[in-house]
Structures are given as structure tokens and as C-alpha cells.
Specification:
Elements (H helix, E strand, L loop, with lengths): L10 E3 L8 H10 L3 E3 L3 E2 H6 L2 H6 L9 E6 L3 H14 L3 E6 L4 H4 L11 H14 L4 E5 L10 H10 L5 E4 L13 H10 L4 E4 L5 H11 L3 E4 L20 H19 L1 H15 L7 H9 L3 H17 L7
Parallel strand pairs: 1-2, 1-9, 2-4, 3-4, 4-5, 5-6, 6-7, 7-8, 8-9
Helix pairs in contact: 1-10, 4-6, 6-7, 7-8, 10-11, 10-13, 11-12
The protein binds flavin mononucleotide.
Flavin mononucleotide binds next to loops.
């Protein structure tokens, strides 16, 4: 449960800006993700109301329950943007307290807010009183190695009504380098009574049980390992998925992206997933390169269809 919202399962698609559009979120839900996040959306941008933001707030029934993640730092702005998110149909409002990108932190947003737990407390006090949805946050362990204040931050959130805390086990200045610190995530789980999600370095199905056992967390977020690999939510490693099956999912994903974003943008966005779908697929290097660089939708579909046909016509040795 996230406050009064039931969540049927404990595998969660992490927020992944630039990847987590609706076709990908829906695919992950279909393959077994119990809950999906949007990538971070600017609270100011939502109020400004650009066409792009409007598109990113187009939520669909088949992806719910859905967490919409905002970034910002001024309570009034976050509150006003939250009303738009509520009207758009999100189930949970999440505040980003972990983005390390300078374009976000230089304004004092994202992971920069970790430097000011009192402000985090004020944000949660206002949001949790005014917003009718559960309000949550995704944090990092601190700004840098000298300021790992995750327990202080987690307590400030819980005391001010947060419904769940997701913890990425790195500091902001680590970006994505080094190993995620699962011990620290376990400390957060011990310190608070609201649900805690663990994030960082789940690369395969076996890692899911490992991180759960290590941290005792209530749910596991899967980020980079879900790209080109929605099967992980069904506890299947991509390497175990036959290529023809992979290709049929890729074709569907591609078509959904094109329906959603148009031929050009749909293809460009899909190509980010494509190289991951093809990882260790055993395709000749030139074919893989042609696919991942292809900017002609019909050609890419033809290449994928041919690949599916050629692999399904090769019978496994045991069937001969
Ligand atoms: C390309 C990319 C985009 C990300 N975007 C977001 C984001 O919008 N919001 C957020 O809280 N975390 C974001 N993250 C962090 C992930 O949610 C996750 O915590 C991190 O990648 C570690 O988990 P993993 O090892 O499963 O990928 C992003 C990570 C990557 C690699």
C-alpha cells in the first residue's frame, strides 16, 4: 500500500528521464511492473504549459497505477503544479530529490535540496496537506561523501507526511559511478515506518532477490536494466528470451512509439531502446549497426521482420 493506494507487486519501473514515455511504461506494466514512474517533470514547466509538457502529462488507464515525478524547490510552484498532475490522473505525486544534473541542481532543485532537510520538511508538510494523492520522494544518499544525510532526510519526509521513500544508493556527486550502497538503503528501511523502495544496480533477475534480502525494502526499482528488457518484470532475463520473441516485442514497442510521437520522433526515441533489445542477440555487427542507425521507419520494420523470420526458420538442433 502507498497510503491508501494498493500496489499489487513489488517490482517498479524507476523514473528514467528520456525513456519513460507512455509506450514504455505501458509495456513494463504489461510485463509485470506493479507501478511505473514518469521521468522528472519541471514544476515550472507544467505551469508554463508548453505543448511538450502537455504531452508528457497525457496519462492512460492501462499504465496505472502511475507515479508522476516533479522537480522544483519553491513550495507554491510545486503545489500549483501538483494540482495539474492530480487533474491529469496520476495516482501518486513524487518529488525528485536525487537528480544530480547541473541544469537542475544549480537552481537548488533535485539533489541540491538534500542540502536543506528543513526545506524538504516544509515542502512535504504543505504538499501532503494540500494534495489529495499520496506524496512521495526519490532521494539519493546525500550531496557528496561528506554529507550523507539520508537518515535525516528520510525522517524529515516521514515526519511531514511522506507516504513512501525511494532510495537510490549513491550520492549526487557519484552520478551513476561506483557501486550503489545497499547497506545505506537498509538503514533507511530500518529508520522509517513508511514503505521504502530500493534503487541501484539491479542488473538481472537474480539481483532482485539479492537487493530485497540485503535491504529488507518493500519494493525494488529497476531502471537501466529495464531498457530494452521489459521481461525483467516477469522475472525473465533477456538472454533467455528467444530472438524471434524479442523482435515481436520490439515491433510492437516501435509501433506504439510511432503512434504516440509520429514517425520521426517515434523512431528516434525507439532507437534508444533498440540497442539494448539487441544486446547479446548474436546478430552480425553490420546488421546491428544498420538497425541502430536507421532513420527510415519502413526499412527498420523490414529489417526486424526479416530477422524474426530468419531466426524462426533455423530449427534448434534438438528438433531435427
Ligand atoms: C537515463 C537515466 C535517467 C534517469 N532519470 C531519472 C529521473 O527522471 N528521476 C529520478 O528520480 N531518477 C532518474 N534516474 C535514476 C534512476 O531512477 C535510478 O535510480 C538509477 O539509474 C539507479 O538504478 P538502476 O541501477 O536500476 O538504473 C535516471 C537514470 C538514468 C540512467
Amino acid at each position: 500500500m502507498i497510503r491508501d493506494l494498493p500496489v499489487y507487486g513489488n517490482l517498479i519501473l524507476a523514473p528514467l528521464s528520456g525513456y519513460n514515455d507512455w509506450p514504455f511504461r505501458r509495456l513494463c506494466r504489461e510485463f509485470g511492473a506493479a507501478l511505473v514512474y514518469t521521468g522528472l517533470l519541471s514544476a515550472q514547466g507544467i505551469l508554463y504549459g508548453s505543448q511538450r509538457t502537455h504531452e508528457m502529462l497525457a496519462f492512460h488507464a492501462d499504465e496505472r497505477p502511475l507515479v508522476c515525478q516533479l522537480f522544483g524547490g519553491e513550495v507554491d510552484t510545486l503545489l500549483a503544479a501538483a494540482q495539474v498532475v492530480v487533474a491529469a490522473g496520476a495516482d501518486v505525486l513524487d518529488v525528485n530529490l536525487g537528480c544530480p544534473e547541473p541544469k537542475v541542481t544549480k537552481k537548488g532543485y533535485g539533489a541540491a535540496l538534500l542540502k536543506d532537510p528543513a526545506q524538504i520538511g516544509r515542502i512535504f508538510a504543505r504538499l501532503t496537506r494540500a494534495v489529495p494523492l499520496p506524496v512521495t520522494a526519490k532521494i539519493r544518499l546525500g550531496w557528496d561523501a561528506a554529507s550523507r544525510n539520508y537518515l535525516e532526510v528520510a525522517r524529515a519526509m516521514e515526519e511531514n507526511g511522506a507516504a513512501l521513500i525511494a532510495v537510490h544508493g549513491r550520492t549526487a556527486d557519484q552520478f551513476y559511478l561506483g557501486e550503489a550502497d545497499w547497506d545505506a538503503i537498509a538503514e533507511v528501511k530500518q529508520a522509517v515506518s513508511v514503505p521504502v523502495l530500493a534503487s541501484g544496480d539491479v542488473r538481472c533477475v537474480a539481483d532482485i532477490a539479492r537487493i530485497q534480502a540485503h535491504t529488507g525494502c518493500d519494493g525494488v526499482m529497476i531502471g537501466r536494466a529495464a531498457v530494452g528488457n521489459p521481461w525483467i518484470f516477469g522475472l525473465r532475463d533477456r538472454d533467455a528470451v528467444p530472438l524471434a520473441e524479442r523482435v515481436s516485442v520490439m515491433l510492437r514497442h516501435l509501433r506504439d512509439m510511432v503512434d504516440e510521437a509520429g514517425a520521426y520522433h517515434g523512431l528516434v526515441c525507439f532507437r534508444k531502446h533498440l540497442s539494448e533489445y539487441l544486446r547479446r542477440a548474436g546478430l552480425p555487427r553490420h546488421l546491428r549497426a544498420e538497425m541502430t542507425n536507421c532513420d527510415d521507419l519502413d526499412r527498420l520494420i523490414a529489417l526486424l521482420e526479416q530477422t524474426a523470420l530468419s531466426v524462426s526458420s533455423i530449427k534448434p538442433v534438438g528438433d531435427l
